[in-house]
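Folds abound. A case:
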Amino acid sequence: MPDPILQPASAVAAWTPVATAGLSIDVRDDLTIAGIAPFRGKAQAVSEALAERYGLALPAACRRISGDDITLQWSGPDQWIAIAGRGAARDLEVELKPLLAGLAAVVDHSDARAVVVFSGKHARDVLAKGLPIDLHERAFRVGDVAITHANHIGVTITQTGNEPAYEIMLYRSYADSFADWLRHATAELTA
């Protein structure tokens, strides 16, 4: 019998997805996430190893790239995050550690992060209520990544599509506060 204390649970306890004609917001609880921190002087070797295995090299600062079964995202100076679906019990930490042995530290972030996806014509309007960055298409494009805050909660935002679509990653311990801010930010659209 599984241990009830160690059962998977959503990062947001009382989340209700938003689905209107111009806005969709939902939590992604189906991801495996691993942080990659190359050892000094090893970033190029890490990039080459990832390119050989997945066909993707480490992206430049403030960028994200996606392949068939993995996404690589810059997450700060000399730091990247690998993201993939958790299907078939996939675990990126377990998958990447042998590949990057001696080249980088690989740490599981799957249960430490919450991921919220936004899409629709009102996505920018809602995010503008709490993010102090310019999300206009002239300034922030598909594949762009920014480390910023949303209503004083540290987040990493990526534009994932032109419709527009965004993904916000934040520390799991702030997920309920973030969801509370979202309820207020979307009130006029969901009433």
Notes: The mean pLDDT is 92. Residues 18-28+112-190 form a domain with the Gyrase A; domain 2 fold (CATH 3.30.1360.120).
